[in-house]
Design brief:
Helices cover about 45% and strands about 15% of the residues. It is of the alpha/beta class and about 250 residues long. The protein has a single domain (about 5-245), classed as NAD(P)-binding Rossmann-like Domain (Rossmann fold), CATH 3.40.50. It has a seven-stranded parallel sheet with strand order 3-2-1-4-5-6-7, with helices on both faces. Helix 4 runs parallel beside helix 5 (about 155-175) and helix 6 (about 190-200) crosses helix 7. The protein is globular and about 50 Å long. It starts with 11 loop residues before the first strand and ends in an 8-residue tail after the last strand. The relative contact order is 0.15.
Length: about 250
């Protein structure tokens, strides 16, 4: 297969929550593969700094994915300013680590609003144009909690499990129209958020590494490169899959 099959030259990618962590890694990988990138997020300083780190290769728009009524306007603005969208990556998220019996209905709803309702609304609005044009790719960000049980993350796990299921369901609707949708299920990665969590709970990191065959946490670019593959011509016959990018954690013991 030609090397160009793994490239995204000239394509326009919209990455939600692109300013930090895995989102930033996804934006960097997309840029390296020739795509044009627009990232969204709630904090302008974070988005501005991310664009500087990416050496001006990306643009940003302020947006909160939980503001569902504003999403059609966001997608319209992106396409008016930058052109038709070829790629959507639903990366924006939040987290709640709390025992299920202590998790309130409101806390549960906030997590689902971001990961599930926000991702669905973004997908629906971007897919309208993609379906009309007969092409496009969408990447959802699932989780290890989509694949196996992890304690004290009931809201997050429920949301991410729903994202994995939604990926399969939407693939059956969108694929006949030339629009592929897949998900990446990241394991544990070297992000600022995780470093902070591991610093306060070294036993957690030891447990994670003990069941990860590659014996280390991942680099955010690993998720980025997986997303690039799923959006590239190299994956033109791949749709509806949930791809673990986890160093083997989901099959480790």
């Amino acid at each position: 297969m030609e090397q160009s099959a793994f490239r995204l030259d000239g394509q326009l990618a919209l990455v939600t929550g692109g300013g930090t962590g895995l989102g930033l890694g996804i934006c960097q990988a997309m840029l390296e593969s020739g795509a044009r990138v627009v990232m969204t997020g709630r904090r302008e300083d974070v988005l501005h700094d991310a664009c500087v780190r990416l050496k001006g290769g990306a643009q940003y728009l302020l947006h909160d994915v939980t503001d569902l009524p504003s999403i059609p306007t966001l997608v319209e603005e992106v396409e008016e300013r930058f052109g038709p969208l070829h790629i959507l990556v639903n990366n924006a998220g939040n987290h709640l680590k709390k025992p299920a019996v202590e998790t309130t209905d409101e806390e549960f709803a906030v997590v689902l609003q971001t990961h599930l309702f926000g991702a669905f609304a973004m997908t629906r609005e971007c897919a309208r144009g993609m379906i009309a044009r007969g092409s496009g790719t969408i990447v959802m960000i699932a989780s290890m909690t989509s694949l196996f049980g992890i304690p004290s993350v009931s809201a997050y796990g429920a949301a991410k499990s729903a994202v994995a299921g939604l990926t399969r369901l939407l693939a059956t609707e969108f694929s006949p129209h030339g629009v592929r949708i897949n998900a990446v299920a990241p394991g544990w990665f070297d992000t600022a958020l995780n470093r902070q969590a591991f610093a306060g709970d070294p036993g957690r990191l030891e447990k994670i590494l003990s069941r990860t065959p590659l014996g280390r946490v991942g680099d955010p670019l690993d998720v980025g490169y997986a997303a690039v593959y799923l959006c590239s011509p190299a994956a033109k016959f791949v749709t509806g899959v949930v791809l673990p990018v986890d160093g083997g954690a989901s099959i480790g013991f």
